[in-house]
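Protocol check, entry for the methods section draft. Step 1: assemble the input record (protein sequence plus ligand SMILES). Step 2: submit for complex structure prediction. Step 3: store the structure tokens unaltered in the notebook. Ligand used here: zinc ion. Step 1 record:
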Amino acid sequence: MMAGETGSVLDGAAGLAAGLAGLRRQIHREPEIGLDLPRTQAKVLAALDGLPLQVTTGAALSSVTAVLRGGRPGPAVLLRGDMDALPVTERSGLDYASAIPGAMHACGHDLHTAMLAGAARLLAARREQLPGSVIFMFQPGEEGYAGARLMIGEGLLDAAGERPVAAYALHVASAQFGRGVFATRPGSMMAAADILEVTVRGHGGHAAQPHLAADPIPAACEMVTALQTLVTRRFNVFDPIVITVGSFHAGTADNIIPDEARFLATVRSFSAAARDRVRAASQRLIREIAAAHGLEAVAEYRDEYPVTVNDDTEAAFAADAARDLFGADRVAAQPNPLPGAEDFSFVLEEVPGAFLMLGTCPEGTDPATAPFNHAADAVFDDALLPDGAALLAELALRRLTAA
Ligand SMILES: [Zn+2]
Ligand SMILES: [Zn+2]
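Step 3, stored output:
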């Protein structure tokens, strides 16, 4: 990569295209999962080497936090890129496909990492005029490890000496979103994703004489259907929840009543209020159905990722910046929140900001039918890396200048 000069961020980003694609493909070939991503971290540190940044690395996770201090006084903004891969064996057929069986950048976080490194380079080239600081958050462990929460715990939000006034993140999509289209919305952007783990305890016996045992299976089945009734009867259709029992286990043979039945559900909600209600209501429903049948049940509700909530003003600000850079036909108002979850939600609980999607399906593919993020054959086009880097840089520049 070459140091960009201070023209428009778009021109500067175009000059970084080859370097960013090279970095992305290096990361793509060597995907790492979870909180410990030493090779990815090394690639990021190499990509940032020589830039005027204060770089620190994480203790509990292989994060990289880099701070750019502008030449003029002003507040701080935070830009985030996640770096982790998924436990998927790649079937994309790309020449830079994962060299590691069982690991793949199937959610496009390799693109996020390269875009953020590009934004750091673009902003570093404008350091003298920059009124304030930029925190670059290179984050491991987005896919289920709450890496963002760990980075916050290690002082991320104080990295510039003061809390950032705004935070932005971009997520690529291999399907669903038109190629090159940025999408966001005010308010709830993505769901909260929690886990409901239920154990129904009875006592086993012979299946021919159920009255002498305490059969947990019919009660557990009743709980599964009652949870669906809870969804439709107790929650506003305009502030909905989703409960899906994805795992259900009991028993070993047709003629044995088992001691217990267990099931696991994912619980998605789109507001903090609905989340609080479903947490309480689902546990009570389980306990009381069990009691009605003379059984005991343990319903453990585990809070995983909160609702990703965009600040209304910041979402409009980010969409305006994207429109100015790329034109109105490349910016879409996202009609509904996405039912997936994001741990950038932990940052947005602390700092107002916006999360945006960017369609990156390859040219000539139909986003309606292209393989989705997390699929073994998902493909993300890295020709869009300069656009992502430019938007992140532009958001920081504008937000600091406007402050
Ligand atoms: Zn993902
Ligand atoms: Zn992701």
